[in-house]
Structures are given as structure tokens and as C-alpha cells.
Amino acid sequence: MTDTRRRVKVYTLNEDRQWDDRGTGHVSSGYVERLKGTSLLVRAESDGSLLLESKINPNTAYQKQQVQGKDPSVDITQDVVDESEEERFDDMSSPGLELPPCELNRLEDLAELVASSLPSPLRREKLALAVENEGYIRKLLELFRVCEDLENREGLHHLYEIMKGIFLLNRTALFEVMFSDECIMDVIGCLEFDPALPQPRRHREFLTKTARFKEVIPISDPELRQKIHQTYRVQYIQDMVLPTPSVFEENMLSTLHSFIFFNKVEIVGMLQDDEKFLTDLFAQLTDEATDDDKRHELVNFLKEFCAFSQTLQPQNRDAFFKTLSNMGILPALEVILGMDDVQVRGAATDIFSYLVEYNPSMVREFVMQESQQNDDDILLINLIIEHMICDTDPELGGAVQLMGLLRTLVDPENMLATANKTEKTEFLSFFYKHCMHVLSAPLLANTTEEKPSKDDFQTSQLLALILELLTFCVEHHTYHIKNYIINKDILRRVLVLTASRHAFLALCALRFMRRIIGLKDEFYNRYIMRNFLFEPVIKAFLNNGSRYNLMNSAIIEMFEYVRVEDVKSLTAHIIENYWKALEDVDYVQTFKGLKLRYEQQRERQDNPKLDSMRSILRNHRFRRDARTLEDEEEMWFNADEDDLEDGEAVVPPSDKMKSEEDLMEPISKFMERKKLKDSEEKEVLGKTSLSGRQNPSFKLSFSGSTKTSLSSPPSSASLNPGSPGSPGSPGSPGSGARSSPSTTTVTTKGGLVGLVDYPDDDDDEEEEEEEDGESKEDPLPPSKKSKLSS
């Protein structure tokens, strides 16, 4: 016999930390009774004596030690031969693998041979061929029966290792023999005697006495019956009998997984082709005379049948569900879901989930058709909603599953649109007419007062699920949900839940309102303002106090969104009705920012032409980039002083410059009517403030239609700091404003820049100044500055 066990050299580390050569031997693994576990064994090549015996610790990570340098027992230098090359040489040199005789006294040799062949793919292949060609499995099973009769525990332990190794050979031809009717129970018997366990398992006893096969509908095809038995037993071997595979062994069982997979495909196909079987199945399911136990078995069978279908290829799965649909699976489920048996309803829900995940359009079409014949109370989709509401599980596991199915059914993303009809329009109209009142019933019943009437954990969980679905509808349904919310006053009811003692429910209510506000729909906004629906939100905010938590952040984020997005109607509503409650909140600037927005809106309303003026000025505002600034600066420094004194424009004129009359008319009219009130609100050009009692006189002059200067003559109003009555004097109302030179000149390339500086435009102007390279302190020398101002 060709010895295929792994040949190794053994070294031990002595006290001087030097390696001593113990000799050459063959390594194997096996169960050692003395060590109470699987151990590594190395026997000498010369006489078979034991060189090494070490128990394998399953919690220790082992790795292959690489050979370095040379063999210390050899005087000459030798090249290191890679182990994989040595294996390939051995495999090529030996044409086949000779198995030892299948006898009791050779079981240990066979177990070592199998264990040593598994690490090498080529040796594994040769071992599989040898076992297959010599009919070795049947011989081993005969030895198993002998060992079991003789109670030969050592032989049974070797047979366990051998049979486990044959599974890891991963060969379909061997599985066909092992899983045949005459062999499979003996194979399971071999796997009962795990040497790592003190007592053998009783798998065969469970399969023959405890687990019983029931034909809920008689199966006339013997091949189908045999295939079902085989699949159940092989699945049991995979799940219960075989030990959990290690990382290295996991891929070695891929053929076993495939064997089970294709068996299930065959079973589904054979059942699908048996029309009599399916007809009887659905007839008994819907028959009122069927007793509860029988119906429970039928539903469980149908559930397992649908689970098997998940292994089918897409085209086969399509045919499978079409067959079930033609057989009337949805009407049958409707009958089953109306029963009182909780287990039967649970199985029916699982079946319904398979149908919804596969083809939601098929389910939608069915429920719309049945609405023409049945009352709302017995519609399939309303039964699903009722089961979600009435889930008795404290954690609402079933309700969560059903809510996911409803969400799939009302999701417009998976709805079809054809030339003749739109599924989205038809189904949503049906859903809001026949089903939405059932879904929202718990919400409406629990929010009749200022606080939730029932505030226990399970009720709060259910309401949170309903709110999650309603929020999804707000995001995806627009028209239908808008009408429903406004007509049924749903938002007001939802905001009652902000007073719940369960924070997660209050946050769900806030999220619902936040989604509505996020749509920026004026229909929603008018509804919110008309019913003062910010009031419960502000109450929740104030009741939360100074606590920095999710409630606080969620409410502030809602108001911040209104401010940032400048939702004018809501901004005015909030400030006019709730400002006194919010004005002391200063740890964020959200509410003060809302007040500023509101004041800006009022200012525009008081001055109708303010917006038009701002648009005129901004339309002519020219934002220069860095390259333009550099070019203009270079042109300015290179220009002759005489040119500058002559007032010639350095910056090229704009082709789009308006005429003086066109530009002066709206500005003059506006400036004549404007009454200056406050220093911060009435800054002209360089933030120069005028008293509210003054009537400023402005002079507009143009130079070559390119250079615009806006200056106030000294005779009309002195702008020098410290002069009597001037804004910069200590006694004037505008003494806090910044001073400016008596004459201010603005030069533009494409038009006017900031002729009038409004207080609500400060941020824009500061940004303009930074981008235009302007600063409060003029960096130019006095000579240049005076010439520019002249």
C-alpha cells in the first residue's frame, strides 16, 4: 500500500534553547482516550514508535511553520523544497490510491489515511475516486453494523472519523450512495458515535419515532414521497448531525448544500405539476367543515411549500406564483386570516409576505377587485391592518412585519404605469377611501384629549408604527394624504402625542410634522396657522426645560428649518403668536434669527418699493473675481497721475450700463419718500447714518457713464465726525454709527454697487467688501486717495 500520510521531521527545543532532531515520521490526528480529546500524533518512520503526542486545543490558532535554513542533521547545504511542489511530485508519481482492506483491524489505518488526504485537493480527489470505484461505503456500513452489535466502541469512533471525512470529500456520487434509502440511516448511525462525547447521540431514534411524516394531502407519486423523505433527513444531517464546520472545512460541504437545494427544486416542480394535489389543498383550506388541526397542518404545509419556492430560479418562481394565484391563494388567505387561531394566522401572514415581496401588483389588483363585491370590514388589506393593530406580542413583532408589508403595498415606486391606466392613481384612491380610516382608528381614538388617553408601552409602540407609515405617505403620496390630513385634522391629533411620557412616540409625532413642513406647501402651512398647531410643539419645548436631548434638538431643528428656508408665512405666524414664549431662549440664535426675518418682512411690507429697489441694485451689482481685481489694480498703478486727475475711467465701461435718467428716476422717488428712523437701518454707502428728522439731499453725478459718485454736499448735511448735529457727534441720535468721509465715490465696472445700504443687507455687503478687496481702513496712500475722491 502506498503510504500517503504526511511525512514530517520532529525537533524539540532543549534547555539551552537549541533544536534537537527527534527523527522523521508520519503525522496524523485522532481521538486519544487518555488525553480526552483529538490529538496530533507523529509516529517514527523506522519502527512506528510515538515521536510526538499533543492534544489539539480548539481555541488555539495554529499555522504552518515555514522551513528556514537547512536541516541540522545534514552536513551539506540543501535547497528548500516547497511542500506544495513535493505534493505535486508525489501525486504525479502515484497513478492511484490503494485503500486498505475494509476490516476491523484496519479501521485505524483507514481513518489516518482519510485524515491525511483531506488537506490536499489532489489526494482528496484520488481518495474519493477510490472510495467510489471500490464500493467502499457499503462495506464500511456493514462493518458499522458489526461494531454496533459487538459494542466495539473504538471501532465505532474510527468509523465516525472516516464517515465525517467522506462527507468532506464533497463528491455528489458518494452522496447519492450515502443518502439512498438502504444506507442513509446507517450513515446517521456512524455519526452518532462522536469520540469527543461521552455518550452517543440518538439521531436515528428521533427520526424513526419522534419525527413523523404526515401527508396532509395524499401524495400518489412514490418518487415524490421518497424525495421528500430524503430531503428532510439530509437537511437534518446538515443541521443537527454533522459538527459545525471550521473555517477550512466550510467550503468542503458546498456539494451537500447543492444536493439539498436541487432536491427542493425537484419537490416544488413535482408538486406544481400535480394539479389534483393543489386543487384538493385549496379546497380543504377554504372549506368551513375542515377541523382546526387539519387546517393548521394545511397552512403549515403551504408555508413550507412557499419557502421552498425561494430556491427556484426567477423564471421558475414566476411560474410557481402564477400557479398559486390561479388556484386562488389570495381568497384562501383571506379566509384563513379571518380565523381565531393565532398560529394559523401567523402562518398565513408568512405566506402573504412571500406574495407581497414577489409581486405587490398582483396583491393590489386582487384587493381592488374584491372591494367591488365585499364590505370594507372583510377586505384582505383591512384584515392585515386589523391584525397589525391587534397584535398581542408585547414587542409587536408581528405588527412590525405587517407594517412593512403595508408599506410595500402603498409604495408608488413599485407601482406600474401603462398607457391605459395608472396603478398609482387607482390603488391610492382605493386605499384612502376604503382602508385609511382603519389604519388611523387607533390614533384618533387615543388623541381625543390634550394628552394620550392610553400611554402604556405597547400602545405607544403601535402608534409609533402607525405614525411611521403615515410619515411615509406624507413623503410619497402628496395629493391623497394632504386631503386626508387637512379634512380629518390629523396633524392636530398627532401633536397630542408630543405630551406622551414615551420620548420615542413624541419624537415620531415631531418627525411627522417636520416632514409636512419640509414640503413647503402653502396648503399645509395655512392649515397649521389656522389651527395654531405650533402651540403643542412649543409647549413640549418649554416643558422639556433646559435638558439637552433629542426632543430639544428636534424642535430647534424644526424652527431652524423655517428660518433657513425663509418660510415667510410660518415665520410671521410664529413670531406674532409665540414670540413672548421664545424670546428668552438665547443658547441658540434660531428664534432671534426668526425675529429678524420677521422684521425684514415687515419692513418690506411697510416700504413696497424696497424689494424692487433691492432687485434693481442687485441686478447691477458686479462681483469681480480675483483676476479682474489684479488687472484693475495693475492698471491703476500703471496709470499716469494726470490721467487720474483728469477723471478718466481706469476700468473699461460696461455695455449694459443704464442711462442716467433711467437709473435716477426710481432712486430719487424712493429716497424722497424714505424717512430715516434708526442708525442701523438708515446707513448710506459707507454705513453713514442720518437723523430721522433730517431730509437728506443727494447729488448723483456720472463721469463718462462709467463712474458713479454718490455724495452729500457739505452745505446740506455735514458728515464730518464731531460736527454739531452730525451723526458722529455725541449728542446726535446716530452717534453709535460709523463715520465716513464727506465725499464717497463708488467706481464699478459693470454698474452701480451698493448705492443704498440697508440693514438687512449687511451680511451681503460685508461679503461684497471681502470679495472686492475693500476694508474699513483704506490701504491706499493719501495722495492716491485724494485723487480718487476728487
Automatic annotation (TrEMBL):
Residues 641-790 are annotated as: Disordered. Residues 670-685 have a biased composition (Basic and acidic residues). Belongs to the SMEK family. GO terms for cellular component: nucleoplasm; protein phosphatase 4 complex. Residues 110-600 form the Serine/threonine-protein phosphatase 4 regulatory subunit 3-like central domain. The lineage of its organism: Eukaryota, Metazoa, Chordata, Craniata, Vertebrata. It comes from the Eukaryota. Residues 758-775 have a biased composition (Acidic residues). This is SMEK homolog 1.
